[in-house]
Amino acid sequence: MKKLRIIGGGWAGLSAAIRAVQRGWQVRIQEAAPTLGGRARRIQRAGLNLDNGQHILIGAYSQTLQLLKLVGVNEEQVLMRIPLQIITPQGFEFKASNWPSPLHVLTAIATATTWSIQDKFFLLKTCIHWQAQQFNCDSSLTVQELCQTLSPLVYQSMIEPLCIAALNTPASQASASVFLRVLQDAFLSGTHGSDFLLPRVDLSELFVIPA
């Protein structure tokens, strides 16, 4: 029997372990922390179960959804699926429609509140450029650097919250290439690829414990 030692018991390490066990390997995970899950796990504070870094999923994360199913997790029981929408206290609303992809996001841009026509034009122009580049960019770029051509209003009201939601990392630090991959998967993989999948349970119960 082949043996495999995995360094790190985050979601990536657990995923690798599951796949290796499927192939009949003997797996050992080494994790420095007292619990598994990495940044996406349950922690306790003042007697309450909290998430160590809030994460959400999107409908385009097909491999993650397949992995949850593989360990016996029922998606409908643990995840609440809602269409993409970003709403701020300042009155901004960005809501995807049920139209076929990519029309569902184009309508969201067209109907976004508080944005000027110029804001929307430059966002569409930038998106077309990203698509022409096949959603590839210099691997050293951050999301903030990638989005320099967008208006400050578009950047603050949509890019920053979307980056935090999808990558759990500020736009000033997040990888632009990873962000573009998320956008491609979310907006071009079907109408429901951009859906938000909000956990109904803590992150350890969502995946770590079942795994």
Task: Report what the structure shows.
- The protein has helices at 11-22, 62-70, 75-78, 103-111, 117-132, 143-146, 152-167, 176-188, 203-208; strands at 3-7, 26-30, 42-45, 48-51, 57-58, 79-82, 85-87, 93-95, 196-199.
- Helix 1 (11-22) links the parallel strand 1 (3-7) and strand 2.
- It is elongated.
- The strands form four sheets. It has a three-stranded antiparallel β-sheet. It has a two-stranded parallel sheet with strand order 1-2. Strands 3-4 form a two-stranded antiparallel sheet.
- 25% of the residues are buried.
- The chain folds into two domains: 3-80 and 197-208, FAD/NAD(P)-binding domain (3-Layer(bba) Sandwich), CATH 3.50.50; 84-194, no CATH class.
- It has 211 residues and is α+β, with helices and mostly antiparallel strands.
- The mean pLDDT is 93.
